Predict the 3D structure of the following.
Amino acid sequence: IKRITTHILQEMKMRGEKISMLTAYDFSMAGIIDSAGIDIILVGDSASNVMAGHETTLPITLDQMIYHATSVVRGVKRAFVVVDIPFGSYQGNSSEALRSAIRIMKESGAHAVKVEGGAEIRESVVRILSAGVPVMGHLGLTPQSIYKFGTYTVRAKEEAEAKKLLDDAKLLEECGCFAIVLEKIPAALAKQVAETVQIPVIGIGAGPYVDGQVLVVHDMLGINQEFKPRFLRQYANLQSIMTEAVQGYIKDVKSKSFPSEKESY
Ligand code: KIV
Ligand code: NA
């Protein structure tokens, strides 16, 4: 199998082939998604919500992200694996940013890191890139800044914030980022960004006029039924499938129909 690279992702943008991206946090899920043919797997800090049950992405640690990333990398043969650098491990200190990125790359075997923000984290982005580590940007609704925003509503609806977002996207491209995620912004602005920068722009709640799409795998599989924003398309209802399976098992145990003679030694 030919591995996906930043070069291949760039070519996909050039020829208009949309890039598919999903999150994964463990070996088994990563293996399924990779075998299905996904282009990019993101070990997102959404693991903080989906795996650990926290309300925000802020509590997850660098060590915990490396544990998830290491597990994912072991399950992947083809996809390009990107890992979120967690809150507090890169902002405002480019030396720490570089150290965090190097730890992720060295200990997990992942292929790139992702960081949230534009001009504010420029130094960190440049420093990581100078070490030869590919960096994916993330603009718009950046969940590590949730307490600054106060809500999870659509970002950059106003002129000033939209202009800053476009400037930040250009800056990230100039720095040398290989791609940018745009989260929960108007489709028209996302289109403008994707047409302005040459690098792939991957959207989540950013409309169709971008170079690819990303979703949290637990959301699109319907494992987590509580989170249903407008941008989420649910491709399965694994929660009900799993509940029925577990209830079937409980019933069989209680009724002594499991295990049968054939299932015994
Ligand atoms: O952590 C995450 O899952 C993400 C995606 C939503 C882009 O950053
Ligand atoms: Na994230």
User: Anything to note?
Assistant: The pocket of sodium ion (ligand 2) is lined by residues 44-46, 57, 84 (CB under 6 Å). The two ends are 40 Å apart (CA to CA). DSSP finds eleven helices and eight strands in the chain.
